[in-house]
Amino acid sequence: MNLPLSFEFFPPKTPEGAAKLRVARQALYAHKPEFCSVTFGAGGSTQEGTFGTVKEILGEGVAAACHFSCVGATKATVRKQLAELQAMGVKRLVALRGDLPSGYGAGGEFHYASDLVAFIREETGDAFHIEVAAYPEIHPQARSADADLQAFVKKVKAGADSAITQYFFNADAYFRFVDDAQALGVDLPIVPGIMPITSSTQLMRFSDACGAEIPRWIRLRLQGFGDDTASIKSFGLDVVTGLCEQLYAAGVPGIHFYTMNQAAATTEIIGRLQRA
Fold first, then answer.
1. The whole model's pTM is what?
2. Which of 12, 116, 187, 243 is the most buried (most CB within 10 A)?
């Protein structure tokens, strides 16, 4: 399997978490990722941790993409952060509107991710490769499927280089989204985001929050396993490997793994794909 891979991490909150993430990263680096991305908390709340983790990854000789959200931000603060990232040697950004912290009203000078993408391009030219988010199963706050697709096209036209999707378990949703985007003139790579299944409760919680659909048959099988974590993990590996095989056979431009700061499941899936 000769397919570009990338891995996503979140900034750890404790020294123990940071140590575990370093071990996980080293295991995943064996697969020669194109880059590793690091997320932001709601409203940019983990910015210090995000920048710190990005710096560590760069120091380990791997390209790092920094998630960059614009909720509540001003042009001055974004300009300052872009300069800081450039000084660190960051060449890739994942430009997002970002989630509003609870109790937070709308504010700042950016209302949409497309505004942020356009500003980054105006300020820094081609200094950054800009990734944007795509939602094959429609953003949970979108007015309609068409409105969501138009919002995606707007981000692309603002200056994006490529896109990473929200995770999904229905390959047809991804293929349909790509076809619809291409019909509107989008010709950049749209990389599928993949979430390994290691915990049913965690997956249900995340999916309910972000609008990713868990097909009924998967949901019911996971519920049927109860607290049998070994069966959940075995089933999850089979399901997600099958999904990746389907995507690979269709010629996707890469695969982006949402690792949850763990290496085992992602490594096993990649190993199965290479042996297939």
1. 0.94
2. 116
Calpha distance 31→8 (Å, rounded): 14
**Coil/strand/helix, residue 3:** coil
Is 236:265 a contact under the CB 8 Å cutoff?
A: yes
Cβ atoms of residues 67 and 36 within 8 Å: no
Q: What is the CATH number of the domain that holds 267?
A: 3.20.20.220
**Exposed, middle or buried by CB within 10 Å (0-12, 13-18, 19+), for 132?**
buried
Between 14 and 47, where is the model more confident? 14
For 199-206, the CB contacts below 8 A with 24+ separation are: 199/229, 199/232, 200/225, 200/232, 202/260
Phi, psi dihedrals of residue 80, rounded to the nearest 5°: -65, -45
Per residue in 94-119, pLDDT (tens digit) is 999 876 555 455 567 888 899 999 99
Identify which of 160, 165, 179, 94 has the alpha carbon closest to the alpha carbon of residue 135. Answer: 165
- The residue segments making up the domain with residue 191 are 5-275
- Residue 8 appears among annotated catalytic residues: yes
Catalytic residue among 8, 56, 131, 137: 8
d(CA 115, CA 154): 9
Side chain identity, residue 231: S
Rounded to a whole number of angstroms, the distance between the first and last alpha carbons of the chain is 9
Q: Of 27, 9, 196, whose CA–CA distance to 94 is shortest?
A: 9
> In the chain, how many domains are there?
1
In contact, 170 and 213? CB cutoff 8 Å: yes
